[in-house]
Records
---
Amino acid sequence: MYHTHFHFKSQPFSEHASPASLWVDERMEEGLARLTHLVEHATLGLVTGPTGVGKSALLKRFLHDLSRQRYETVYCHLTHLNTTSLLKSIIAQLGEQPRRGKERLFAQILEHAARTESTLLLIVDEAQLLDAEALTDLRLLVSSAIDTAPPLKILLVGQETLRATLKQSQHQALLNRIHVQYRMKPLSKEQTGRYLDIQMKQAGAAEDIFDSVVKTLIHDFTGGLPRAINHLATTCLLQATARNVLRVDEVIFQQASAELQLG
């Protein structure tokens, strides 16, 4: 609907944007640098941030740029499963039939990592949902008193509550092994304005559609969270289309923001 109204060449603010089209801002650059350090020099990494801050976009861009010849990746987000089911899920993604018994599952993952010519990277998303047993099991996959170079690397990604969990005494051994950490923050007011402009430019907009004051209002309303910005900006475009205007001003913003407020 608004795609035709604004003569866009592509869909702006899409939740399913291609990795190559993702905007690499300063936060993304910092995150990518740390993840690159993880796969090249470290074993355990941690990325945290509030819901909608862009952790998924960071992972998508990182995996897009990662060499398929040098790294084999397993992405796991079903972290509500018990630890045995979690290990089975990992093994299934490695293309193998899970063995019976937790000890054999451990051995199967380590054996796969040891015999592959590439480095195995296990990415555990929504890691704040992992229970204590699962966190311990993940630590044991990369901790050995004999091997100086563990055969795989693990990246934990989750919300800020994950940090509080890792600070508990029972997870001290895991926390001490995390040498790469990154806390992803929301966009600043300036970054939010640039983000809106870049989205419009990539979509093929002929002019600056969002008034400058609206960009500030969008930042304040969303707290700089990209997912919330996407939803609000899209709603603004829909409102402008319904009123047959080509600019998003304060009136359009107020109508759009009211629509998104629940209750």
---
Amino acid sequence: MNTIPIVFCFDNNLVKPACVCLSSLMMSAKEDTFYDIFILHSQKQPLEHSQIDKLPGFYKNCRIQYRVVDGTFDEAFEIRGITTPAYYRLLIPELIPEYDKVLYSDVDVIFRSDLSDFYNTDMTGCNVAGVDSLANLQPELVKYYNETVGTGPDGIIYSGNLIINSKQILEDNVIPRFKELAKNKYMFQDMDVLNIACRGKIKYLSPAFCLTTYISEYNVYRREELMKIWNKEEISDAFSNGIVHFNGKKPWKDVCINFDIWWEYYRRCPYFDEKHYFDFFNYKLNELD
């Protein structure tokens, strides 16, 4: 068995999406892959995990563990409805010391392939690995990263899907820097903190590791610019097998780009509820009418 540790951080507002996300992870796993799943949650609010605990009963090649996070980020800046659990990923090297390297993922994603190849990425000398966010192609973000953050917009990665080199982060003593930066009012919160603190020690991955709404949009309207970052094969693989990240509107709430993929995995997962499925689409049809 190839053991892959993977970490998620969420609260009770995202339990249902988390169940679908974790199901897609297991549906897409190879027979010889074992996922050691860690879920980080606040000490202030007990996590309702009775449904999540059923997952190993459906899929044998996984284990779920919970880690409680202290109040380190209780006063951290919140914006756009993103709450403090978003910052918990910054503490992973301390909270999960049994692994030198882990994967991290938000739960507003659908996994469509096994993660072994990504986990086996050589992380020598790097703190984290992720996917270019295309910030340098968006004028408002160019201005933000030049004037507010001060890093410039080039090479900013998404924080929703990461490879975290815990050993290197601890050796470089980066976590105190994370905690200090989290006091600032950055527009993209943990993502900005991570990019600032790890600058110069970031590895860049193919878009298959984090196929966002923006990459999907650019593939239609500004494909020539994408081709300067990734080749045709990498882009094709992302749309065929990549991790679909719903970093804008959420498919369980509204119609959005790639929402059909989320609902297809929901229909196939062991948590499927026919009434919930019907009510969503019936409501949307009436809304459109």
---
Amino acid sequence: GPMAEIKDYFKPEFAKGLTQGANSDKFAIDSFTSGAAGKFIALYGLDELIDSIPDTIKEFQIQNRDSKNVIIHIPESFGRFKNLETILFDNCIESLPESICELKKLRFIAVMNNKKMKTLPECTATLPYLTFVNADKSENFVLPKSLQEKQPQKMGEGKIKKS
């Protein structure tokens, strides 16, 4: 529409505003259709949004609270968030990329309400600090055998749990 040519000019500043403030190490989306993140997605798309997030974030959350059954694809580039400790995907994915195994600081993986989600990549068993997996209400989810067999003393601070 009108002024579409300035869209790219404002993109970096718009994206930066999504992770600034008191929780600048946290990125969260509660809706794909409203709020600042929803507007960014409408203008630029989800992949552009993920590419615009600073590499330094520690927490990444996407919760689909909309009534629509939106399934998003998490790109392989997700492995660039080397400081991530927590990821949460609620009602929005069917798989996670192998690149999550590059997130060596990851402690918590939550994949709740993802009816099409079947499992995590096997390589998640190599994550040194992973202590908790929550797959509540993801009926088809099975914890990878490599995580089921992981010994508690080799799992960072505690046990892997499927809630």
